[in-house]
C-alpha cells in the first residue's frame, strides 16, 4: 500500500471516490500476466467499482458531484479513488448498496450478453450452467430463471450444489474435481444427459471448460448453443464432429469487446438488468468482503477455485 496523488477528472471524465470493488477471475490472471490484456506496472487490480462522483471533468453534462455510480475500469479498482471516462459509468438506484453494485456489472452483464444477445434464450428452454456456484454461474442462473428457463447446475461438491439450488437452480449434479479421459468423461456425459433430460440442454453456459467441455457438449440439444465464457480449468480441445452431429452452435462470449464495439446495446442490456434488480429478480450473492488493505487476500481466494458467489473489496 502506498499514498499516491488524488485522481483528477480530465475532459470527459469523472473522479470517483471508490466505496467497493468487485473481484473477478481476470484480476488473478492479470497480476500473473496471463490475461489477454497486459497492464503496465505498477497498477492496482480491480476492474469494476462503485462509489460517489467526487469531481466532474470538462464536457461532462450527465453527472454531478455526489451521484452514486458503477464503472468498469479494467485496472485501478482497488484504490480509494479513480478517474474514469464518463461513458464507462452508470448511475445506480439509491437502494442499491455499493457492494452489490460493485459485484453487478461483470457477472450479470456477461451472463445477459451470453444468454440473450448471443444465446437467444427462450423462456421454455433448459439451461445447463457449469461452475454454477461461482460469481458468473450464480448470475447466469438468476438471469436464466428470471427469463423463464429451467436451470440445471453442474458443480464440484455437495456444498456448491446446495448453494446453487438456494440461489435459483432447479436441479443439478456434481462432477469430479478432476476428469480423466474415457471412461470418466463418458460417465459424466451420461450423468449430464440424465440431469438435463432426453431432449438435451438448449443452452450451456461454460465459464470452466477444461475436461468438462466435451462431456457437456455431448448433452446439448439439437440446434443448442454452447456459450464459452472462460477457462478457469484450462483451455479445452473439442472433437469437431460433435457440433456437426448435434447441429449446434459454439459461441465465444467476449463481453469486454462487446462493450467497446456495441456500447449502446450493452447500455440497453444494463438497464434491463437494473430493472430486474429493482424488481427483486436478480441480486449479487456476496459471500466474502475484505478491506482494501487485504485486497491481495481477496484475489488469492480465487486461486483454488473454491470460492462461491462474489468477493468484494470495500473502503
> Number of DSSP strands?
13
Shape: globular
Helix share bin: 25-40%
Q: What fraction of the residues are assigned to beta strands by DSSP?
A: 15-25%
Poorly predicted runs: none
Number of helices: 11
Structural class: alpha/beta
Order of helices and strands: EHEEEEHHEHEHEHEHEHEHHEHE
Largest sheet: 7 strands, mixed
User: Multimeric state of these chains?
Assistant: single chain
Radius of gyration: 20 Å
Mean pLDDT comes to 93
Kindly, what is the distance between the CA atoms of the first and last residues, rounded to a whole number of angstroms?
13 Å
Would you mind describing this structure in some detail?
The chain is 32% helix and 25% strand. The protein is of the alpha/beta class. The strands form 2 sheets. Strands 1, 2, 3, 4, 5, 12 and 13 form a 7-stranded mixed sheet that branches. A 6-stranded parallel sheet has the order 8-7-6-9-10-11, with helices on both faces. Helix 3 packs across helix 4, helix 3 packs across helix 10 and helix 9 crosses helix 10. It is globular, with a radius of gyration of 20 Å. It starts with 12 loop residues before the first strand and ends with a strand. The model has no long low-confidence stretch (mean pLDDT 93).
